[in-house]
Design brief:
Blueprint lengths: L1 E4 L4 E4 L13 E9 L5 E9 L10 E5 L13 H9 L3 E5 L9 H5 L7 H16 L8 E6 L1 H12 L6 E5 L18 H4 L6 H10 L14 E7 L8 H13 L10 E6 L10 H19 L8
Helix pairs in contact: 3-4
């Protein structure tokens, strides 16, 4: 943890937690800015091994959230450093509109009738990474949870050609009925409500992951939907309906070679407070899935 002096514009270390077999000096983070569909410049953090050679085929985990004025700021995760280290991969965090990174205007630019901006920003992040020769579409996995799961589901429907793999976790997938279950009505401030007006109904219908699965667009990325049977925030029916519809839509489609799977955790909820043992099992399954789909070997002796 650090303390930042606003007058001197300097940071000083307050405390450092030591993680076994982890050397912070092995990694580096940089921030880039890229144009979205409407020209807005979007910030993104790219984390990789120090002096990593980029050959346009790095296994890449692209994460996003973009909602409820929540800022996705830099933080440490041993699970993400494992991905970078053992897959020789890149972690990319796109600070898309709908979040709070640049205040309330940034938030307002990615909600309700402007929610598509969030998805445009996220897709533009993948396009930037390909254009700048960090990676290519056969190596990109997109990931997000809750509102970020919605983000992943919407982007898979809109640009299935852009990603190799998608891992939506505890996502809001039915945008027409989300407000009818548990705390879902509280999200209308960000999403709008299908019962509020014809305009909001059409907007929500147009972005709803459940209602826009389209085999006519060709093969979908490999999808691993993740949920938990006791999630009382984003109830598991979202993921269950989405996975069932996805599998039904592509049944008998010979061109769909990528797996479309769901992982249901038992005796767990939305994520907070999940036992470490369950977190490890879930991350291991996700990384195993990503490695298999992208043809990336897990390096052991590094």
């Amino acid at each position: 943890k650090f303390r930042f002096d606003m007058e001197k514009m300097e940071s000083t270390k307050l405390r450092e937690d030591i993680v076994a077999d982890h050397n912070p000096e092995d990694f580096e983070t940089k921030q880039v800015f890229y144009p979205s569909k409407d020209g807005t410049m979007i910030p993104m953090f790219i984390v990789g091994r120090k002096n990593q050679q980029l050959t346009g085929d790095a296994c890449t985990l692209l994460y996003g959230y973009g909602g409820f004025s929540i800022s996705i700021t830099p933080s440490f995760s041993p699970f993400r450093t494992v991905f970078i280290k053992h897959f020789n991969g890149l972690l990319c965090v796109a600070n898309i509109r709908g979040g709070g990174e640049y205040g309330e205007d940034w938030h307002q630019a990615g909600i309700k009738l402007k929610k598509q901006n969030s998805y445009d920003d996220f897709q533009a992040a993948a396009e930037y990474l390909i254009r700048e020769k960090y990676t290519n579409s056969s190596k990109i996995t997109i990931n997000g949870g809750s509102n970020g799961g919605l983000l992943v589901g919407a982007c898979v429907n809109q640009r299935p050609d852009l990603f190799a793999c998608a891992v939506p976790q505890v996502g809001v997938m039915d945008m027409l009925k989300f407000h009818k279950f548990t705390i879902g009505y509280a999200w209308c401030a960000d999403f709008g409500c299908s019962e509020e007006s014809e305009e909001e109904f059409k907007n929500l219908y147009g972005i709803s992951p459940l209602h826009n699965i389209n085999p006519d667009k060709g093969q979908y990325p490999a999808v691993l939907v993740c949920t938990a049977d006791h999630d009382d925030r984003v109830v598991p029916l979202h993921s269950l309906k989405y996975a069932a519809t996805l599998q039904y839509a592509f049944e008998g489609k010979d061109f769909q070679k990528n797996p479309l799977l769901i992982r249901v955790e038992t005796k767990a909820g939305h994520g907070a407070g999940k036992p470490t043992s369950k977190v490890i099992e879930e991350v291991a399954d996700i990384y195993g899935f990503i490695g298999h789909v992208t043809g990336t070997e897990c390096l052991k002796d590094v």
